[in-house]
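Box 3.1 A note on notation
Throughout this textbook, protein chains are presented in two layers. The first layer is the amino acid sequence; the second is a token string describing backbone geometry. Keep the layers aligned when reading.
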Amino acid sequence: MKAAVCTRYGPPEVLQLQNVDEPVPGDQDVLIRIHATTVTASDCYIRSGIPSAPLAVRLMMRLVIGFTKPRRPILGAVLAGEVEKIGRKVKRFHVGDRVWAFTLLRMGCYAQRTCLPANFKLLTLAPSNLNYDEAAAIPYGGFLALHFLSKVNIKRGQKVLIYGASGANGTCAVQLAKHFGAEVTAVCSTANIELARSLGADTVLDYTKEQSSALGRYDVVFDAVGRRKTSPMKEALRSALTSAGKYLSVDDELPRIRRTHLVRLKKLVEEGVLKPVIDRQYPLERIVEAHEYVEQGHKRGNVIVTVGEAD
């Protein structure tokens, strides 16, 4: 089968399309034919070897993922596909089931097939109302947005500001905050104003043009991009909180992700609360271009990689 293999840490060109052995499911595994995956900021971070991180952080991460190259050379942490084979002890899934998964550091999604344990907690049936490309656009940003916004127990009528409202995390955060009953202010660039409005934002601020004086007072501020991006408006956000307001950032912690989160995202998608946002789509053969585009830092929502059948 074909897979995009990370041959070493470095620029996007270290990803090479290769023929690799097809995985074989054990008694308690499922073999999944992958139809779509996504290129996330985290994928690019791992592929690059985390060069911008402090030395201590870089060494710790290399202990986890590999020193000179990833121990698991097939990257990609999100998949949407169908169960093609099951082990003889598997009861939870059946051949033909449409599934999605967030594989975390197991990775392995830049390939035509992968094996996962049938009891893997972040593997469930996919939303029934999405195609594979759309389904792949939900888990990464959906997980992060749901984790952080759930921490503050948003109440109806509260004012919530989402900084970075046009990325994978931000587009999900805007929709979830509206669902929780908040009055939502989205902050993004000029090109993404209409996108933010279409997702339900009540107010949209253009950080490239608006002054910090345009900010109001917010019960919750969620920084959906983290430390890698800033602006004068972002620097002023902590001063825009109410007396009991809370500031959240995707860099605050590594979220503990549970199966219940994925099940909840599926329910929200099927209820029409959460809709996928797709910027561009690339075939697996153009994975290098997909990484190059994501590294520019201007994607709207998600960049999807479609995975074709084996020759």
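The chain has two domains: 2-137+276-306, 140-249. The two ends are 8 Å apart (CA to CA).
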